[in-house]
Amino acid sequence: MFAGSKVTLRPFTREDLIRMVKWNNDPEVEYYTGYGLPKTLSECEIWFNRHVPGHGYRLYAIEAAGARLIGDLELDHISWRNGEAELRIRIGEKEYWDKGYGTDAVRTLLALALGRLGLRRVYLRVYCFNRRAIRCYEKCGFRKEGILRRKGNNNWQDMLLMTKIISEGQDRIAAAGEEESLGASPKRSLVQRRRKYIYHF
User: Fold this and answer.
1) H/E/C letters for each residue in the chain?
2) Which end of the chain has fewer CB within 10 Å, C or N?
């Protein structure tokens, strides 16, 4: 487990899937995180079996005081060789929105990424209209890198690409947890694969 000032991160387990079903079926949560997620418990179990654990994927549960599960956080497309990964966070319990829980979870994850996983760069994609999330990421040191656009697709929502270079001076977390194994990385990162959609500022 990895503790911040407001939240604790721990591995997301099969027993947590019932809460994931709730969040995946909440229209307001879905509006900010994206559509097409599994809706039923059986669909979530299939997804879980396919992805967790994964060589290039880590999924964490976000707990508030009293061990209450309030969201999830993932590192995807982990490139161990290049020391980079894509971050996604969701605070599914809406009463915890705008209270600093998301910011603390991201900061805790960044410390984990440096101290235990050995990553040097974390990037993310966020809808351009999601000002709340953008403010959170800016507080955590992410910088705007570009906009992902797709011409000719009326259903496409522009997304902001943000990047955080993790410095050695950042606080580390000394916590017990599962040891992470390093290995070969994909030939190209997600940022490289999506480069044709990026328009730099």
Assistant:
1) CEECCCCEEEECCHHHHHHHHHHHCCHHHHHHHCCCCCCCHHHHHHHHHHHCCECCEEEEEEEEHHHEEEEEEEEEEEECCCCEEEEEEEECCHHHCCCCHHHHHHHHHHHHHHHCCCCCEEEEEEECCCHHHHHHHHHCCCEEEEEECCCCCCCCCCEEEEEEECCCCCCCCCCCCCCCCCCCCCCCCHHHHCHHHEEEC
2) C
